[in-house]
Amino acid sequence: MTDVAVRPAERIPEPVDTPDRRPTRADRIFQAVMLVILAAAVLVRFSAGQDLWLDEAQSVAIAKLPLTGHGPTMFTGLREDGSPPLYYLFLHFWVGAFGTGNVAVRTLSALFNLAAAGPLYLLGRRLVGTRAAQVSVVLYITSPFALRFATETRMYSLIVLLTTLGGLAVERALRRPSVLSAVYVSLCAGGLALTHYWCLYLLLTVGGWLVLLWWRPPFLFRADRANAARAAAGGPGVDEATADAVADALELTGLPTDPNLLVAVGPPDAGARAARHSALAGAARDAAAGRRPRFPAGGRRGAFTALAGIVGGAIVFSPWLGEFRFQSKHTGTPWGEPASYAAISHAYGQWAGGPSTVGRILLLFVTCLVALGIAGRGLGGRFVLFDLKGSEPARTLFFLSTGTLFVAVTAGQVVGNAWADRYTATAFVPFLLVIGLGATVVRSERFFRVTVVICALAGVLGGFSDVRMQRTQASEAAAHLRLDARPGDVLLVCPDQLGPGLARTIPAGLKAHLIPTWAPPDRVNWVDYAQRNKAADPIALAKRAVAEAGPNHQIFLADSGSYRTYETLCLSIQEELRSLRPKANLEMEQGEPAKVYENYQLVRYQP
Predict the structure, then answer these.
(1) Distant-in-sequence, close-in-space partners of 314: CB < 8 Å, separation ≥ 6
(2) In whole angstroms, what is the distance from residue 523 CA to residue 500 CA?
(3) Chain CA centroid to CA 413, Å
(4) Can you point out the beta strands (E) in 439-489?
(5) What confidence score (pLDDT) does residue 444 get?
(6) Which residues contact 229 (CB under 8 A, 6 or more apart)?
(7) Is the peptide bond before 516 cis (omega within 30 degrees of 0)?
(8) pTM attached to this predicted model
(9) Cβ(543)–Cβ(468) below 8 Å
């Protein structure tokens, strides 16, 4: 995901890394503050000890099944769940070594999450420069979005890790076309497809961009090629209109009009201004620009190599193709509905920090940084020139991120798949790099420090709040059952999606059943889900529960009416049980969605 094949020799003005200089007291304070914030962000990733909700508990229940045998295996569970196997294989061996405790199973995601920081920095350094790469890593480590899914026993942190590795592989293929480069891309592409099916949307988007890059590169980068040609001929690296606009802006701001003197040399004080007019400024510019990566172009061969690697990912995925076909036909996402294209802008808000007050503050900062990264050019101090055509590499990165979301929404509307904010982790990495680049455009060190500290601190605070949110009422329900239930009592779980979380907490001796399958509560079977629930007979299910409980045992019903395909089933069972056993008590009230993610009520029907 790079523009190395078409990057012009020089762009004026170009956001560059700050040249080497002696650290000031302000630098040391800034570094100390950032170290504290980053340390806190790392600790937050290991702080979630609350009970697992549906997706997490289901993941653990599947992963702890044996890989082979005559009974249910992990692959049987995956077929019924509708998921690919790679993350579950990692989790299988992890729980075998460290157990299935809440903190233990979430630690794997935290480690994947932190491991992604290294390749993210390498990818950023090659695409957007060293300083922007550092900012991208900082904003990733402190991101509420990243923090939330670092504490969830799901595959989203692994997706981010594989996306960064895939980005490095594609960049290498564009820069150094070879069979080995194509193999690297194939392994990453296949790994992504075997981790989450939404990654197919990312691969389709990147593949489409590579086709354009191979087939019609001037269509994507005509302006950049023209600028490079002018620079090679000894002229300015921009067209005359842009050069005039830059000169006018510099004159209005009181900055030097010689492009060679447009450098970042620290705070905009009198000494810095004088340095811009000295020969030292040119040397500083050269030193800083030298740290910007300028790789040799791979041309159309590089694009073809990367594209061949993505196609080769199908070979890595092929052993799972039969299961994928079955899941596509029989599982899907019956729990949700397809999204509209408004979900794309909603995803930006989720990446920034979510719907909380802190998240909305972060969204304002992130929106400005995205605009700066795509279209901004630092003139010096606090002044910025905006080019509405945008520039590389931010333009391509933003296209890949937004294009993936667009493909996801379109595919969902065509085949009926649901949208979930957590799935957008597939497109998160390019967006991070755009933000990191945007933070380095403005040449004011004060602006840079304040922006990074505010975004990082707000991210950790907002992320900690999200991480500490109660995810299920399973422990509360289990406490009531330990107090009031006896061995042999019947527990009905309606909808069945409440079962996996409850199964980890309820006392032994209860006859627990999912509605309508009457299966044990540890796993949900998504095969032909909507049709099965529609065909269920609530009266027959209620009578079956009464018959199993007999005259001496109680019936407990954990239910919620807010689940798709269960709009009337649970309520009908509740009404039938009340008619058969009028002596009913509400043991646990349903929690508020703003305070607990998976919320439901617990009703007791006495003999």
Answers:
(1) 190
(2) 5
(3) 21
(4) 470-472
(5) 86
(6) none
(7) yes
(8) 0.87
(9) no
Torsion sign (Cα): 330, 95, 149, 478: positive
In what order do the strands lie in the sheet containing 511-514? 511-514, 490-494, 555-559, 601-605, 584-588
Residue 321 burial (C-beta neighbours within 10 Å; 0-12, 13-18, 19+): exposed
Q: How far apart are CA 296 and CA 305, in angstroms?
A: 15
Distances (CA, A) of 224 to 129, 174, 228, 278, 555: 18, 17, 6, 30, 71
Q: Residue 160 in contact with residue 425, Cβ under 8 Å?
A: yes
Question: Tell me: the pLDDT tens digits for 235-259?
Answer: 445 556 666 666 666 666 565 555 4
Tokens representing residue 201 in the block:
């949307």
Closest CA to 199 of 103, 87, 89: 87
Return the residue matching tokens 């019936």: 555
Give residue-wise pLDDT tens across range 351-377.
999 888 999 999 999 999 999 999 988
Residue the block writes with tokens 């009009």 = 257
**Helix, strand, or coil (residue 403):** helix
User: DSSP 3-state assignment of 20?
Assistant: coil
pLDDT digit string, tens, across residues 288-306: 333 333 433 567 899 999 9
Task: Give dist(CA 212, CA 235) in Å, integer.
Answer: 29
Cβ neighbours for 357, distance < 8 A, ≥ 6 positions apart: none
Question: pLDDT (tens digit, 9 = 90+) per residue, 188-239?
Answer: 999 999 999 999 999 999 999 999 888 876 666 555 555 555 445 554 455 5
Sign of dihedral through CA atoms 285, 286, 290, 291? negative
Note whether 435 and 116 are within 8 A (CB). no
Q: How far apart are CA 87 and CA 68, in angstroms?
A: 17
The strand pairing partners of 323, in sequence order, are: none
- DSSP conformation letters of 349-391: HHHHT-SSHHHHHHHHHHHHHHHHHHHEEEEETTEEEE-TT--
User: What angle (nearest 5°) sits at the alpha carbon of residue 583, between those of residues 581 and 587?
Assistant: 110
- The burial of 534, by beta-carbon neighbours within 10 Å (0-12 exposed, 13-18 middle, 19 or more buried), is given as exposed
Give just the sign of the alpha carbon dihedral 369, 373, 376, 381. Answer: positive
